[in-house]
Amino acid sequence: MNKGTVKFYNNLKGFGFIKDDDSSKEFYVNASGLKDNIGENDKVLFDLEEGKKGLNAVNVKLA
C-alpha cells in the first residue's frame, strides 16, 4: 500500500486528489474507491489502479 495525504476532496461531487508521500505525485480518487470517509489533509493508505486517464487511488483508508 502507498501512503499519502489528501490534498483536495469534494464530498458533494465525490472526487479529489491524494499526494503520494514517497513520489510526491498526485493521484485522482473517486468516492467509489473509498473505504473510509476522508477530508483534506488526512493521512491515508491506498492502492493504485489503472483508470481511463492514468493511475487512480483505490481502497483508500485512513492511516
Automatic annotation (TrEMBL):
Residues 1-62 form the CSD domain. One of its GO terms (molecular function) is nucleic acid binding. SMART domains: CSP. Its main location: cytoplasm. GO terms for cellular component: cytosol. It holds the Pfam family CSD. InterPro entries: Cold_shock_CspA, Cold_shock_domain, CSD, CSP_DNA-bd, NA-bd_OB-fold. It is found in: Cytoplasm. It comes from the Bacteria. Keywords: Cytoplasm. This is Cold-shock protein. It comes from Maribellus comscasis.
